[in-house]
Amino acid sequence: MFKGIFMANLKLLYDRVGGAAYQAYMRRNAVAVWTNDRRGSSFGLDWAGPFRAPTITAQASALDVLTTQIPALAGPASP
To answer: DSSP states of 23-54 as a string?
Structure first.
């Protein structure tokens, strides 16, 4: 399950070099997971949907992409 690893490393790249395109890509994927591939607190393998039975690796990958958006949702850092 390489999707989660890819997203986690894309976030590291974004943190170092910035780039609106990276952030937009991560956001689109996070929205897809949340909108199309979630049942309660479970996430499936196909982020575009439809939801299928979750596995531990699908859960981990979905959480990896969702956590890329935590700083964006938290707003600017306070001094």
So the answer is: HHHHHHHHHHHHHHSEETTEE-S-TTS-----
* Peptide bond just before 76 cis, omega within 30 deg: no
Contact 35, 47 (CB under 8 A): no
* Sole residue written with tokens 């001094």: 79
C-alpha 28/C-alpha 61 separation (Å) is: 15
pLDDT in tens, 43-57: 988 889 899 888 999
78: pLDDT strictly greater than 70: no
5: confidence class by pLDDT, cuts 50, 70, 90: confident
Q: Which of 22, 21, 18 is nearest to 7 (CA)?
A: 22
Task: State both tokens at 48.
Answer: 């575009």
